[in-house]
Amino acid sequence: MRLSYGTGYVLNTQNAASTRNKGVEIAVDYDIVKAKNLTWNMRMNFNKMYNRVIGMPANVAEYYIADTWLFGNARGGLILNGPTTSITAFGYSRNSQGKILINPANGLPVGNGVFTVQGDRNPDFTLGWTNTVRWKNWRVSMLWDLKVGGDIFNGTNMYLTLRGRSKLTQDRFSPRVIEEFLNDGMQNTSTPTVNTIVVVPAYNDSYYQSMPEEAFIEKDVNWFRLRDLTVNYTFNKNFIKAFKSLSLFATGNDLILLTNYSGADPP
Prior knowledge:
Layout: E1 18-34, E2 38-55, E3 63-64, E4 74-78, E5 86-89, E6 101-102, E7 116-120, E8 125-135, E9 138-148, E10 152-153, H1 155-162, E11 181-182, H2 206-209, E12 217-218, E13 223-234, E14 247-259
Parallel strand pairs: 6-11
Antiparallel strand pairs: 1-2, 2-8, 3-4, 4-5, 5-7, 8-9, 9-13, 10-12, 13-14
């Protein structure tokens, strides 16, 4: 961790945190067909993981994995009693009711400029489904991959939005009012001031430039994909006597993807 230069040092090495990980994994393997020239084996693997940070140094409010801080202010961060797969990022300032606060000077949301937990990458569960079919010299194997739940920071969407090239910026000439509460000193009272300031993003670059990373974290991302498809042919031994065995194969990855993620391909 980085230290104050006043200590005479720059970095200090110490244990970052104590974590607890638990999980459930269930595997089922079954031969659907088992004949002389034809076999079909199916295998399913279910996985569910639980994780939590149970201890951190008293002087560390957040620990983050440096390699995950690649773009913007979103990263894989850890806080005490939070998940080990959390996403810490800049977000919106909110009142005591959790409503986004609006700057009364320009009608735009106010950012908090603080790394807080904005998402959790850990899925609700994953399921792998493998099918292997053998017919004479042919072998076909396919792996289907299902993931349910888990959050993703769409850094690509944020990058394109900041440069006016994402779908979010297509209606930039449409006037709109962000229906939240003004940050005018009344935001935490029983009668906060409702925002009525009209904004046209095309004439106010700050509309998109001020969007924090929280706005680009997609919740509960699911996918169902054909992770791998391999077709293999094994030649008979008497076909080419110079080799003990000879086979040819072709493999395709991620040939089918069904997902609610708005980006190109969820990682």
